[in-house]
Design goal:
The model has no long low-confidence stretch (mean pLDDT 94). The chain has one domain: TIM Barrel, CATH 3.20.20.70. The longest helix has 29 residues. It has an eight-stranded parallel barrel, surrounded by eight helices. With 324 residues, it is of the alpha/beta class. The chain contains 16 helices and eight strands.
């Protein structure tokens, strides 16, 4: 039995890609998208109909340089999400504009727009996860949306305080970024490698998982942003793992025996103190964690840059003036 098949018996495997052909190949339960994955997908010939449809239904003139075309990108994300849902049995995560990461109200409105577009396409909201950055404002938006039956995936999560705040807000899912945590520590330590069993990103996810299971939180943990299959194997048993196609392929080709590392029953037997957070204590704990503070800010900037990149690419390809 392949390692991937063994992993599927203890963890929900999510495809970290916008490439529908890759999703068909690896047969994950869920899938996730983001602007960089959409950027790669829109350059593929087989998806041009999805792009053309999004532009035709866009409420603004994409060729007017004074107009923000991000409403078109919301439609594009919905088109790809709908296509992905046609080949997986579970859910797809779709991201809210990163520029709204510090605006609770606008994040809520963007999530409602996305859900409305999916529902107009005949997709039930239970199959959609709205991806929101794990800022204080984003977590508060997630809390409101969950009460409306709009399920959320809180992303760009790097710290224990972010995780606990998300669980207290009763969001559906969190996505701790394993690889980006390790990247920061490698740079800080001046080393090229950290063994998977000593990986700070792996240890962070394991701590969050154990805390959630110990105290009975329903929020699920989905490890994300992996740099190696070794990190993935160390988190076998996590609720979900979102994995890039190259790692899915490697796991599918491996026949080694997989050991489950995270077990709910073991988590419940651990001795732990419960953490209580309000806005002040949340912001202070995040501020005291240099890695989380830096990576959260960087992640929001990068997600926003990815949206700009996608916007510029679409304009360069579909506006006559840009091609003259």
């Amino acid at each position: 039995m392949s390692v991937l098949k063994q992993l599927r018996e203890m963890t929900t495997v999510v495809a970290d890609t916008g490439d529908i052909n890759s999703i068909k190949l690896h047969r994950p339960i869920d899938a996730t998208t983001n602007p960089s994955l959409l950027f790669a997908a829109v350059q593929m010939a087989e998806y041009q109909e999805l792009v053309a449809d999004a532009l035709e239904r866009c409420p603004v003139d994409i060729c007017d340089p004074s107009i923000n075309i991000r409403p078109c990108l919301e439609r594009l994300a919905v088109n790809f999400g709908k296509e992905i849902l046609g080949v997986i049995p579970g859910r797809v995560s779709v991201e809210v504009d990163a520029s709204l990461s510090f605006d609770t109200g606008q994040t809520i409105e963007a999530a409602r727009r996305l859900i409305t577009m999916f529902e107009q396409e005949g997709i039930e909201r239970s199959r959609i996860l709205i991806k929101i950055a794990s800022t204080w404002e984003g977590i508060r938006a997630g809390e409101v949306l969950e009460k409306e039956g709009i399920h959320c995936n809180l992303t760009l999560l790097f710290s224990f305080s972010q995780a606990v705040a998300c669980a207290e807000a009763k969001v559906t899912l969190i996505s701790p970024f394993v690889g980006r945590i390790m990247d920061w520590h490698k740079a800080k330590l001046g080393v090229d490698e950290i063994a998977p069993e000593e990986d700070p990103g792996v240890q962070s996810v394991a701590k969050i998982y154990n805390y959630f299971k110990h105290f009975g939180y329903e929020t699920q943990v989905m490890g994300a942003s992996f740099r190696s299959t070794g990190e993935i194997l160390q988190l076998a048993g996590c609720d979900l793992l979102t994995i890039a196609p190259k790692f899915l392929k490697s796991l599918d080709e491996s026949e080694n025996t997989l050991v489950r590392r995270l077990v709910p029953e073991q988590s419940k037997s651990l001795k732990m103190d419960r953490l209580s957070l309000d806005e002040n204590s949340f912001r202070w704990m995040l501020n005291e964690d240099a890695m989380a503070t830096e990576k959260l800010a960087e992640g929001i900037r990068l997600f926003n840059a990815d949206l700009n990149h996608l916007s510029n690419y679409i304009r360069s390809q579909y506006c006559n003036d840009a091609n003259n």
